[in-house]
Amino acid sequence: MEGTGAVAEPELTSVLETPSGKGQGDENFPVGSWLIRRDLRPHVHAFYRFARQADDIADNSGLSPEDKLRRLDRMAAVLDGAPDGDAPAAAAMRASLAATGTTAQHCHDLLHAFRLDATKLRYRDWDDLMMYCRYSASPVGRQVLDLHGESRDTWRHSDPLCDALQVLNHLQDCGVDFGALNRVYLPEADLAAYGSRVADLATARASPGLRSVIDRLLDRTEALIDSARRLPVVVQSTGLRRETGVIVTLAERLARRLRRGDPLAARVKLSRGDFAMALLLGAWRGRRWGQG
């Protein structure tokens, strides 16, 4: 019938989603933990699954950039109401948005970042990297805050926290990202300033120049964490206040580990002890700060 016919969807050469096997346990921060409201946890998990599936597409070395973009565009279309038989994570996210009344913009912002991952291999300087984080990291905190009905004034503390976690993850995986995907998030301007080269990322240990680049990025990241320390103060929800306290503490501890460790020699990561201490200290900080 005129005006009501379904628009033909582009055929994909294989299943849309390409799961890597990574999950919530691989992250540096809790995802929808028991600290937050029980009724909101499934929606946080739906958002995480949506982001995870899109990230896996962007990081799949077996796909061409063009195929990655087609798949990510398909996820966006399903998010916005297209037939959803081939994109379960996007369909579940669409249902979550309908149930909670939250905006789809944060999801679309993430997809923008993953499109960059599919096509962009280098970053000029810190500002260029922060613009990427605006789409790859900040939307995560914004989504969780919106789900809790928090004021958007909280974003000025949440954005730095999410961006800091993103940079810390880039530093953890700098050698792997280069080796597997030829993708380098360390800014070219910093590499040049310290006499380092992209090829240094293929070595078994960080060169003195590369070590200086890592330390410079940690300086900037710790400044972001400093801006984020007020997040538990301004969050109203008790559980989320405690969870943000935990996450701030985890960011602090991971930054310290990266100061001492060499991400090329071995992956620098948080220990079970770090998570345990962050839970105790972060939850206490969140409660205390919220009552101050």
Describe this protein's structure.
Helix 1 runs antiparallel to helix 3. Residues 1-14 and 288-292 have low confidence and may be disordered. The longest helix is centred in the last third of the chain and has 23 residues, at 238-260. It contains 13 helices and no strands. The chain has 2 domains: 35-105, no CATH class; 120-292, Farnesyl Diphosphate Synthase, CATH 1.10.600. With 292 residues, the protein is an all-alpha fold. It is globular, with a radius of gyration of 20 Å.
Q: How are the SSEs ordered, and which strands pair?
A:
Layout: H1 41-58, H2 65-79, H3 88-100, H4 105-119, H5 126-136, H6 138-147, H7 155-172, H8 174-181, H9 188-193, H10 208-228, H11 231-234, H12 238-260, H13 272-291
Helix content: 55-70%
Low-confidence stretches: 1-14, 288-292
Number of domains: 2
* Annotation field: number of helices: 13
CATH superfamily of the largest domain: Farnesyl Diphosphate Synthase
Radius of gyration: 20 Å
Mean pLDDT: 89
From the N-terminal CA to the C-terminal CA, the straight-line distance is: 63 Å
CATH class of the largest domain: Mainly Alpha
Overall geometry = globular
> Which secondary-structure class do the elements indicate?
mainly alpha
How would a textbook summarize the main sheet? Answer: none
Q: Give helix and strand order, one letter per element, not per position.
A: HHHHHHHHHHHHH
Beta-strand content bin: under 5%
CATH topology of the largest domain: Farnesyl Diphosphate Synthase
- Oligomeric composition of the shown chains: single chain
Number of strands: 0
CATH architecture annotation of the largest domain: Orthogonal Bundle
